[in-house]
């Protein structure tokens, strides 16, 4: 093995395990440790097991997800690093592979990877630390932390204290060295802020865990693809970001008159369903340049909004 074995729990812990398929902020169906249909390894494994493509609400067992995490890293994400930076240290390779896993193979075209290839690890770490820390122009604290940790690993072989190397790469051995998963404090605070912004939580309840859990549960109930457990985890955080992004896009692209016309309907519905603002967005997106793309990308959210008003019945196709 050419990379530090601590990579597997490091990447897995940052991605977080999600048992039930959901749509990530970019709209891709996601399951396990950030697996999407874009991975050939995952695609082949899933098709061999199920004979069809991944579908919303499909589930995966953690043991299978841990097996796939290692398999995908070896077969897809380690290879470009080993090929183009063969003399890099195992810890520098590990940090690079984590970046490719998180951002996709296209990240090897970026400045940080070019620096690694020419052997300038210090410059590679400097660029890696500040690369891909935002989404839709919004700096995400969890990504900032992940890049900061990866840069320290790359340059100094300095790992977070919780990261331990598994004895073997059997799923049970990898799981044994991974702490009980929860969102980092920075990601959790971001999720709480989004619950407040969407009206599920009062600003005064930011530090009340019981109120946060209740608000999270209400949000999850409005999104049937999520487990309704009141836990602010990876899938729920990503879904919150997805709704926030939809709200932002709709607000920027809306026509003033359309907004005025739709607001009344939204106001009447929001108190009862928590979905009033999404109804507003559904009304506005038809006025956005390129609105067809926007409606397709957020079709799941818009369908939920329409169902909240009875416009679309459960079982109708969108």
UniProtKB/TrEMBL annotation:
Its EC number is 3.2.1.17. The keyword Cell membrane does not apply. Gene3D superfamilies: 1.10.530.40. It is an enzyme of class 3 (hydrolase). Signal peptide: none annotated. InterPro entries: Bacteriophage_GH24, Endolysin_autolysin, Glyco_hydro_24, Lysozyme-like_dom_sf, Lysozyme_dom_sf. GO terms for biological process: cell wall macromolecule catabolic process; defense response to bacterium; killing of cells of another organism; peptidoglycan catabolic process. Keywords: Antimicrobial, Bacteriolytic enzyme, Glycosidase, Host cytoplasm, Hydrolase, Membrane, Transmembrane, Transmembrane helix. The chain crosses the membrane at residues 278-296. It catalyses: Hydrolysis of (1->4)-beta-linkages between N-acetylmuramic acid and N-acetyl-D-glucosamine residues in a peptidoglycan and between N-acetyl-D-glucosamine residues in chitodextrins. The keyword Membrane applies. GO terms for molecular function: lysozyme activity. Belongs to the glycosyl hydrolase 24 family. This is Lysozyme. It comes from Hoeflea marina.
């Amino acid at each position: 093995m050419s990379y530090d074995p601590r990579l597997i729990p490091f990447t897995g812990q940052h991605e977080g395990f999600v048992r039930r398929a959901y749509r990530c902020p970019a709209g891709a169906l996601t399951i396990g440790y950030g697996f999407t249909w874009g991975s050939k390894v995952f695609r082949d494994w899933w098709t061999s097991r199920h004979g069809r493509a991944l579908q919303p609400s499909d589930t995966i067992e953690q043991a299978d997800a841990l097996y796939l995490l290692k398999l995908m890293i070896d077969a897809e994400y380690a290879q470009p690093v080993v090929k183009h930076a063969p003399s890099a240290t195992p810890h520098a390779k590990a940090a690079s592979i984590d970046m490719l896993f998180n951002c996709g193979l296209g990240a090897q075209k970026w400045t940080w990877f070019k620096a690694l290839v020419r052997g300038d690890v210090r410059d590679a770490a400097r660029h890696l630390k500040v690369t891909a820390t935002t989404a839709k122009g919004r700096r995400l604290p969890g990504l900032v932390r992940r890049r900061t940790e990866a840069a320290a690993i790359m340059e100094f072989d300095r790992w977070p204290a919780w990261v331990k190397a598994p004895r073997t790469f059997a799923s049970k051995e990898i799981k044994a060295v991974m702490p009980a998963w929860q969102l980092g404090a920075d990601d959790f605070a971001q999720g709480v802020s989004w619950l407040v912004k969407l009206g599920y939580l009062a600003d005064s309840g930011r530090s009340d865990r019981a109120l946060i859990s209740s608000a999270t549960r209400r949000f999850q109930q409005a999104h049937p693809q999520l487990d309704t457990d009141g836990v602010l985890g990876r899938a729920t955080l990503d879904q919150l970001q997805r709704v926030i992004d939809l709200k932002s896009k709709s607000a920027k692209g809306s026509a003033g008159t359309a907004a005025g016309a739709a607001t009344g309907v939204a106001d009447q519905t929001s108190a009862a369903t928590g979905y009033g603002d999404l109804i507003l967005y559904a009304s506005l997106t038809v006025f956005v340049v390129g609105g067809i793309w926007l409606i397709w990308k957020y079709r799941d959210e818009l369908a939920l909004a329409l169902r909240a008003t009875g416009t679309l019945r459960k079982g109708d196709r969108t």
